[in-house]
Amino acid sequence: MTNQDLSSENINSIADKIHKTYFEKSYSIPNNNNNNNNNDDDSFTIFTTLRYDPSTYNGPLNLIDAINSIPLDASFFYLLQEHIDKIQRAGEYFEFPTKNLTISNLLNHLTNSLLLSNKLNSYRIKISISKSGLYSIDHSVLPKSHILTINVPQYDEFQKIPLNSISSIPAYLQDWEGWNLYLDKVQSQPTPFTSFKTSIRDTYNNARLRFNIIPGDNREVLLQDNNNNVLEGSISSVAFWRQLKDPFNKQLSFKWVTPNLASGCMDGVIRKHLLKSGLIVEGIIPVKELQDGEYVLLMNGLMGVKVAKLIL
Asked: What GO terms are given for molecular function (predicted)?
């Protein structure tokens, strides 16, 4: 392969192929509630969690007319096509009937699920699909404080004084009121259930239990794999500010680096969106290189991008 062949698009394609090959092996669904260990059990589901948000609407109608339209415009559901793509990738791996899932038919069901809801609110929406093709849509209102943020900061922004601050101290020296990210010292084994979002979440639930993290906390746990490399968060993809050498011109530059798919991490929708935008890149993050107090990006389809401070 020549240097010309190694475009960012081709590199991502190669990584995806490595990831797919890595998990091209048999798997079994853990036995729950004394049922037979049967891969056709409808209690095992694949799912995605997305955000309905009136602030993301970008259609031609005014907002009031738009929220009363049937079906709702796709832009109300942040990165909807990316969520569909993610479900279809999981469906292909687990052999679920997801190929016919499209924006048009999903929008009809999403609209029906919100029919009696106040669509000026933002909602957490969970779409689950079983092996037999049955699927459910559940939603719950998000608090006003749960704001979608999609800005990817440069690290030097933390050296600046916040605009609303009366102090002359830069942001990184001020009291931290954002997310805290805790390193889990227990290693996690990558499996198909870490690569795809499924109802089997023991790896993540156990990590959260070790830090007593409950829903709504501004706390997250950072998982490491059995090679002592960073994997991901329990509910988020992660990215670290690291110096990289360009493979072509050998120049050094700093970028936000997220673990590559070959590590066994999940291909989250925000992660994939930012990779395509060139705002983050893939790489390997050794645990031994982590620094206590460094800033880390947390990313998922519900909250967008948040900054966390790492606690070792």
From this structure: catalytic activity
Residue 26 predicted with pLDDT over 60: no
Q: Counting beta carbons within 10 angstroms of the beta carbon of residue 149, is it exposed (0 to 12), middle (13 to 18) or buried (19 or more)?
A: exposed
Q: Is residue 164 scored above 70 in pLDDT?
A: no
Q: What is the rounded distance in angstroms from the CA atom of residue 193 to the CA atom of residue 38?
A: 16
**Cα 278 to Cα 273: distance, rounded to the nearest angstrom:** 9
Identify the band that residue 6 occupies on the pLDDT scale cut at 50, 70 and 90. Answer: very low
As a whole number of angstroms, the distance between CA 35 and CA 42 comes to 11
d(C-alpha 243, C-alpha 241), whole Å: 7
Domain ranges of the chain: 42-141, 149-311
Q: Which residues pair with 299 in a beta bridge?
A: 237, 305
If we measure between CA atoms, which residue out of 238, 268, 232, 304 comes closest to residue 83? 268
Q: Mean pLDDT score of the chain, rounded to an integer? A: 87
Residues 6+ apart with CB under 8 A from 200: 29, 30, 44, 193
- The CATH code that applies to domain 42-141 is 3.30.470.10
At residue 172, the pLDDT reads 59
In three-state secondary structure terms, 274 is helix
Specify the CATH superfamily of domain 149-311.
D-amino Acid Aminotransferase, subunit A, domain 2 (3.20.10.10)
Tokens 């009366």 sit on residue = 166
Measured distance between the N- and C-terminal CA atoms of the chain, rounded to whole angstroms: 41
37-96: pLDDT as tens digits? 445 567 899 999 999 999 999 999 999 999 999 999 999 999 999 999 999 999 999 999
The answer to whether residues 222 and 183 touch, using CB atoms and an 8 Å cutoff, is yes
Exposure letters 86-124 (e unless 16+ CB within 10 A, then b): bbbbbbebbebebeebeeeebbeebbebbeeeebeebbb
